[in-house]
Amino acid sequence: MNLARFFYPMRELVPIFESQAGLLEESSRLLCEMQQTLDPANWRKLFYEIRNNEHKGDAMLTEFREVQRALPLRAGVRRELSTIAMALDDALDVIKDASNAINIYNPAKIDPQLQDLARIILDEASALRQVFPLLRDVKKNASAIQLQADRVTELEHDADEAYEAYVGYIFSEEPDLREMTKYKNLAELYEKATDSEKHVSDCIRILLMRYDN
Predict the structure, then answer these.
(1) Is the predicted pLDDT of residue 152 greater than 80, yes or no?
(2) I want to staple 17 with a disulfide (CB 3.0 to 4.6 A). Which of 41, 75, 132, 196 is the partner?
(3) What is the separation of C-alpha 72 from the centre of its chain, rounded to a whole number of angstroms?
């Protein structure tokens, strides 16, 4: 059975998804900025901006639930839309945690490999931001949605490889065990952020599968 008619009410949720994705992209950009400085004052400033975005994201998730509750959606569609909204919120939380870790660890340097991982986080967020306007017409835009989801998957694979290579690098090249631990923990958080963004794209794929069935 074609479920297209059950997706029309979903369009009322698209602006909230777009706002969530916008916060995710902005926070990812701020995290990238944190890689460009060793000034703790700048780190704190940028972290506070990311934390503020995370608070806004919490409010948007609450708004999403209130709007969705009033919409005539099938149970499966309702569940999958909720999963997407929560996945976006979780991704924003991970980026906040990564930015806070920089303040806590106060690393002596930001290696280029960490900068590359942060850029992958931003690239994934940018790809996700492009997806949500397309949900206004899932049938028409299915191929474009799939393309962006594939892009996120490719980037996440790049992040896995970059993370593994960086861990090998710091274990062989970093003489200070304390600093090495800081860099490894930061890299783990960045890699976790790429995983969380891929989870958003995976949830979108499931929504597409429901539309096609």
Answers:
(1) yes
(2) 132
(3) 28
CB-based burial of residue 18 (10 Å sphere; 0-12 exposed, 13-18 middle, 19+ buried)?
middle
Model's pTM, two decimal places?
A: 0.94
* Rounded Cα–Cα distance for residues 129 and 123 (Å): 10
Of 8-17, 49-58, 101-110, 167-176, the least confident: 8-17
- For residue 69, is pLDDT > 70? yes
Q: What is the predicted pLDDT for the residue at 2?
A: 45
Mean pLDDT lowest for which of 6-15, 75-84, 138-147?
6-15
For the chain, the DSSP string reads ---GGGTGGGGGGHHHHHHHHHHHHHHHHHHHHHTT---HHHHHHHHHHHHHHHHHHHHHHHHHHHHHHTS---HHHHHHHHHHHHHHHHHHHHHHHHHHHHHHH--S---HHHHHHHHHHHHHHHHHHHHGGGGGGHHHHHHHHHHHHHHHHHHHHHHHHHHHHHHHHHHHH---HHHHHHHHHHHHHHHHHHHHHHHHHHHHHHHHHHHH-
Q: Is the dihedral of CA 191, 197, 200, 204 positive or negative?
A: negative
What values do phi and psi take at 31, rounded to 5?
-65, -40
Tell me how far apart the alpha carbons of residues 43 and 48 are, in angstroms, rounded to a whole number: 9
